Each structure stands twice: as structure tokens, then as C-alpha cells.
Amino acid sequence: QKEVEQDPGPLSVPEGAIVSLNCTYSNSAFQYFMWYRQYSRKGPELLMYTYSSGNKEDGRFTAQVDKSSKYISLFIRDSQPSDSATYLCAMSAGYGGATNKLIFGTGTLLAVQP
Amino acid sequence: DTAVSQTPKYLVTQMGNDKSIKCEQNLGHDTMYWYKQDSKKFLKIMFSYNNKELIINETVPNRFSPKSPDKAHLNLHINSLELGDSAVYFCASSQLGQGSGNTIYFGEGSWLTVV
Fold first, then answer.
1. Which residues have CB under 8 Å from B26's CB, separation 6+?
2. Which of B98, B101, B107 sits opposite A101 (nearest CB)?
3. Using an 8 Å Cβ cutoff, are B3 and B24 in contact?
4. Interface contacts A/B by beta carbons within 8 Å
5. Helix (H, G, I), strand (E, B) or coil at A93
């Protein structure tokens, strides 16, 4: 079993829809949770970062962490065709330090249809 | 102005060959990484360097040898290439380390195909 599980999709939604992307994890030591967006033929870029449990909002994007369920989510409101990309969750146990490993999910491919 | 640049972007080579991928970051970061992304989009760390010193080596075959001549450069040399080495290799950098929330900046990737 992988440490981080993510539904690979693809997920296809109409423009304007609310999108929910999710990851589950098994390591209860994880405290730092990130979402990366990766466009086709590009490198991943950090979208959202949260520490421990709770919600964080940034524009149309909301990240949620439920440590008790070992479950994290990314919500995209009013989805746009430009949101079409692969979304990767990532998480780690510690703060900083080059020895601290970031564990990625396999990514969910999202397609927003105009 | 590209923050993390890696070359070549595409590389097709035969089994058994030796090849190198070069990476440079102009962000002044202390930590650099090599990640491998397989055909299923699974992204996994291979190596991390901090100020030219190897910090993480994730049970990668010793055919893979990273080299950091200075903290702005981290190159990856691969000997005796195998079919299973076909993947996208990403160079990345950050300031404090992976888990800090300090942004990890990725290069655009090097698509390696071994035939």
C-alpha cells in the first residue's frame, strides 16, 4: 500500500462546476500538506500549502485537511478550462531541512470542458 | 528568466548508453533535488543536495550518479541505461527543505526514452 493514495481520474467537469480532489494517507506523522498543479509537459508548481488540520482558502481554491481521517481535499470553485491539469497532493512529517522527504500522490488528471 | 532550467528537455537513447542531464537554478536556493516521474505520473524523490552535499539518496541504483559542482548546479549522470529508466526527470530547488511549505520550484522536466 502506498503512503499516499490519490484517484488518478481522469475527472471531466463542465466549466463553472465545483471540483473536489482528494487524497488519503497512512502515515499519521504527516503534518504538512501541499497541492501541486502540473500542466502537460511542465513541472509541478505549488498551489496550496496547509499545516496540520483545518481549511485554507486562496481565491477559487480551498484546501482542507482532516488528520483524524487521514484525508485531504482540494476544492476548486467556478472551475475554468485553464484549471485543466494534473493535481498532485504532497505531504511530509517535518518542517524544513533537506533531510525531510515530501511524499507525492500519483495525481488526478482534471479536464474542465468549456 | 527561468528559475530552474534543465537540459536536454527530450532525450532518446539506446539501451546501454550513458547520458547526463544538467540542471541550474538562479534562485539562490541551498537545496536541490532530482525527482523521477513514471508513466503513471508518480513523482518520487531520487536525491537531494544541500550546499553541494548529498543529503537524501533514495535507494536509487548506483548507475545514477548526481554531481553538484556548486549550490546552483545539480547534474544527473546515468550509466548503462535500461528500458525501465524511461521517465521524466525533474530537477527542483528550495530554500529550507521539502516539508517546510517553502515553495519547491521544479524545472520543466527532461523526457528520457530508452529504446
1. B1, B2, B3, B5, B72
2. B98
3. no
4. 82
5. coil
* Beta-ladder partners of A64: A55, A73
Q: Torsion-angle region of residue B43: left (phi > 0), alpha (psi -120 to 50) or beta?
A: beta
Determine whether the interchain pair B40/A106 forms a contact, defined as Cβ–Cβ distance below 8 Å.
yes
Instruction: For residue A102, give the amino acid letter.
Output: L
The whole-angstrom separation of Cα B67 and Cα B96 is 20
What's the pLDDT tens digit per position in B27-41? 998 889 999 999 888
Average of pLDDT values for A60-74? 95
Q: Phi and psi of A83, rounded to 5°?
A: -80, -10
Taking the Cβ of residue B39 and every Cβ of chain A, the question of whether any pair is shorter than 8 Å is answered with: no
A32: cell is 504538512
Angstrom distance (rounded) from CA B98 to CA B80: 30
CA B58 to chain centre: 12
Could you give the CA distance from residue A32 to residue A65 in angstroms, rounded to a whole number?
10
CA distance B61 to B54: 15
Q: Residue A61, Cβ neighbours under 10 Å: how many? A: 17
Do A52 and A65 form a contact (C-beta atoms < 8 A)? yes
Mutation pick from A49, A102, A103, A106 vs chain B, by most beta carbons of B within 10 Å, is A102
- Site of grid cell 534543465: B6
- Confidence (pLDDT) at A70: 95
Those residues of chain B that have pLDDT short of 50 are: none
Report residue A21 as a C-alpha cell. Answer: 480532489
